Amino acid sequence: MAKQRMNIGVVLGGMSAEHEVSWQSARNVIHALDPEAYQPIPILIDKQGDWHLLETKEVFSDDLLAAPDPKPLPGGRKILLARDAGALFLVRKDGGTRMHRLDVVFPAVHGPYGEDGTLQGLCKMYQVPFVGPGVLSSSVCMDKEVMKRILLERGIPVPRYVAYDNRAGSRPDLEQARRNLGLPLFVKPANLGSSVGVTKVGAIEDLGKALAHAWQFDDKAIVEEFIEGREIECSVLGNEDPIASVPGEIIPSSEHGFYSYDAKYRDPEGADLKIPADLPEDVTAKVQDLAVRSFVALLGEGMARVDFFVKQDGSVLVNELNTIPGFTNISMYPKLWEASGIPCRELVHRLIQLGIERFRREAAKSCDWDAPPPEGS
Q1: What is the DSSP track for 241-292?
Q2: pLDDT band at 254 (very low <50, low <70, confident <90, very high)
């Protein structure tokens, strides 16, 4: 008798500015799933926050991706999640009809409402295994300021920065930022990714406009010193005993100036990717060590991509961690593991198994508040 396949709910889309990138990641995840072991169940979160059941072929439809809202979808596709007899199912929103059981959720949603712990919390509430870090790690890594605070507390070097919260109501001292951080500067939303909302500022009079642009995407913005160095990335995989991939280097084209959204996803010649990066052995070891240390410090599980700056003197700074890194066919996370000997199909399989292992570990924890302490305590 053939072994029953596991249903993998691949969640894509989302309400963030990275909606389109998410589709590309989901396509690659679905393509990498072993068809003999896994059945993909594509779940679209549209830009309004409604959930829809897709057919696999629709995930690969550029026409559907380009649609501004879910109107092109056939009726009866809106769904809810529901537990029944200890299992999680998709149900039709209009009639409550049970549709598919979900064995594991694979989030391919980037940015807020997906990578920030909210989707992870929903999975925990519904008691379904999911791929990637848990609620706290996801939310902390999503907020670049909080992430940097923790890394600094653990003795992990990061670029100098200052954070400005638009909710505070006070006017930022831009001249002080220039004195403390120099020029040029990078301004970015604290809670976003894929270089969305990021501006390189070369003159102090442009800093206010760059902050206003970043605040369009998030209430908090990070102003960061410019680092004269190479952009290096390293992938991490694992739960209790994480491992690091070979590092890779991103060399943005001079036309873009830095690894912008356009350079990543719209311009096929926006950057050169060198895998593995041409680094001295001691610097490679330092990058891999800092990648794992950062992952552990931020309570990572499953996967993360750690981004670095390597300066000319060989010193290494951690820029940020991405807990649901891009999974497109040009994304560094899967490409770095492929260069490290783990092809994409094996990588996706390992990530699913790591999610199941974490779920079983957490499920084994006692919920009996009256359980006696161990003898002798």
Answers
A1: S-EE---EEEEE-TTTSS--HIIIII-TTSEEEESS----HHHHHHHHHHHH
A2: low
What's residue 374's pLDDT?
A: 67
Calpha distance 88→41 (Å, rounded):
13
Q: State phi, psi for 78 to the nearest 5 degrees.
A: -70, 140
Map out the domains of the chain with their CATH numbers. 6-130 (3.40.50.20), 160-225 (3.30.1490.20), 228-360 (3.30.470.20)
Indicate the SS3 state at residue 351: helix
pLDDT tens column, 36-56? 999 999 999 999 899 999 999
- The CA dihedral of 369, 81, 13, 186, to the nearest 10 degrees, is -20
What values do phi and psi take at 81, rounded to 5? -100, 145
The answer to whether 25 and 14 have CB atoms below 8 angstroms apart is: no
Query: At how many degrees (to 10) do helices 144-153 and 135-142 cross?
Result: 100
d(CA 16, CA 4): 35
For residue 157, the tally of other CB atoms under 10 A from its CB is 13
Provide CB contacts within 8 A for 4, sequence distance 6+: none
Mean pLDDT value of segment 104-133: 95
Task: Say how far apart CA 333 and CA 326 lie, in whole Å.
Answer: 7
Pick 16 or 133 by higher pLDDT. Answer: 133
CA–CA distance, 317 with 311 (Å, rounded to integer)? 8
C-alpha count within 13 angstroms, C-beta hemisphere, residue 186: 20
pLDDT reading at 253 higher than 80: no
Q: What is the pTM of this model?
A: 0.90
What residues form DSSP beta bridges with 300? none
Q: Which residues pair with 230 in a beta bridge?
A: 310
